[in-house]
From TrEMBL:
This is YtkA-like domain-containing protein. It comes from Candidatus Collierbacteria bacterium GW2011_GWB2_45_17. It comes from the Bacteria. Residues 38-114 form the YtkA-like domain.
Length: 133
């Protein structure tokens, strides 16, 4: 190996280690769990009231970056009784956000089940219990 190639290899390795340690550091600052995506839910209105509501499901990768090009579906029902399942696909909004609507026809606890097929085909599920006061 020539000295020049050796030098280039060395510089690349030092650079790579630098990037890796920076990533680990920023992940711990954000409180992210390494190796897992984050799926979060917000509602409009907030706080909820009986009637139609809009749900925004936000998907972030293990590094905290928004994930677009995921396929997000959901279903909705009360936790305490069967009100009939409302389900469908969430519509991409960009910046890792996907939106869906539902009819929260009664006060009480409702479950929003989300299913996210990541761009690499892995499936993540997350359930949220929301209360309509
Ligand atoms: Cu009910």
């Amino acid at each position: 190996m020539s000295n020049k190639i050796l030098l280039v290899t060395l510089v690349l390795m030092v650079g790579l280690i630098g990037v890796m340690s920076w990533k680990v550091k920023s992940a711990s600052v954000l409180g992210a769990t390494a190796g897992s995506e984050t799926i979060s839910l917000s509602t409009d209105p907030n706080p909820l009231r009986p009637g139609r509501a809009t749900f925004v499901i936000e998907v972030r990768d293990a590094g905290g970056e928004p994930v677009d090009n995921a396929t997000v579906s959901y279903d909705l029902n009360m936790t305490t009784m069967n009100m009939g399942i409302q389900q469908g696909s969430a519509t991409p909004l960009g910046r890792g956000r996907y939106t869906a609507t539902g009819n929260l026809s009664m006060r009480g606890p409702w479950r929003v089940r989300t299913k996210v097929i990541m761009p690499d085909e892995r499936t993540e599920n997350k359930d949220f219990v929301i209360n309509v006061p």
